[in-house]
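Revision sheet: structure tokens.
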Amino acid sequence: MIWIYRILFLPLLLLASPYYLWRMRRRGGYAQGFWHRFGEVPTLPAKAPGAKRIWLQAVSVGEILAIAPLLEAFKREGRSEVYLTTTTSTGYQLAQEKYAGLAIGIGYFPLDWWAFSAEAWRKVAPDLAILMEGERWPEHVAQARARGVPVISVNARMSDRSFKRSMRFKWALRPLAAGITRVLCAAKRDEQRFKALGFPPDRLQTTGNLKLDVNIPLLADADKAALRHELGLGAGLVLLGSSTWPGEETALLTALKAARERGLQVSLLLVPRHAERREELRGLLEKSGRSFHFRSAGAAPGVVDVTVGDTTGELRKFTQLADLVFTGKSLAPHDGGQTPVEAAVLGKPVLHGPRMTNFRDIIRSLTEAGAVRKVETHSELITAAVELLQDAPQREKLAGAARAWHESNRGATERTLTVIRAHLAAVNL
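Predicted:
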């Protein structure tokens, strides 16, 4: 099976390369480390005596943030060293900023073709490979299996779309099912889906969601005040659009207008999922007649109606300023949703649309805890946002439920580390 994959991968890559090169150019930031994708890796030190080397792949910003407790534990325990890879330029930038002292090297994940993957494996020479969340690469797993290196999928999840697609090609997953040593699932539903796809039950375990164990550094009051000033936010309430997609920003602008018509002092903080949409958003904001400022331009010259957070790695800080959060990619025509976890961890009242399919179990759990409110349409978002901005006790009720939910769902990190430690202990140097 792997040879069919190897034969088909290269011509498909060549066909798709114009699109991906265009996207890389559009998003920018890929020049540094470009050749990592073809099997090059940054210069790595020789293995420390007695240390076992881990190759950890986390695709982008969300996954990079989620691995912090694992990296901190590896560093603290001192028995392993981590080579960290990511796929996106934003993930790479954030990893460089956050984890330079926790990893022996940071690079881009190689394209999953035999020659590139084999070269990277030869240079990294890991004793254990860890794949974060939805990362399941046939060639990467095949290289590990050929070398007798265990592969652990952590925080593993399977979205509705991926599951449906995978069930149609169940036969093609056999090498992955055989090659991945352990699958540590974020939720029971994910474990059931992996089992349905042919993964051996004795290799499956639900350990919980690592993202619920992330400790988010809290800003001091003075730092919050300084950040508000930099962003041009006034002294009133802040409505945050978190990782928004087209159409959702329009609804939030309408909510801002409606709230102000009711006499509320409100500012809108928009954080688009893709910062390269800034010119599209600029056009939208100009048409709205609202004063606005883009974070990437530096400090705001004064108070504005709308601030666009078009920078990388600052959403956690922005969320701490919010009085109400809307989680993006959750209203039609979009589907999948963006994570509500960090807003909930920070004890913020959260609104979300009906299309949170990538976070189905988390949303169900938050809903049962009374920590979120669902809106079905753009007009419902406008109405609900205005209602909650007017109702401080209701916002606090949602926020308190979110904090309690977070506290009751911690522990995934230690359960995950227990499995990883066992496999590291079994590695003979």
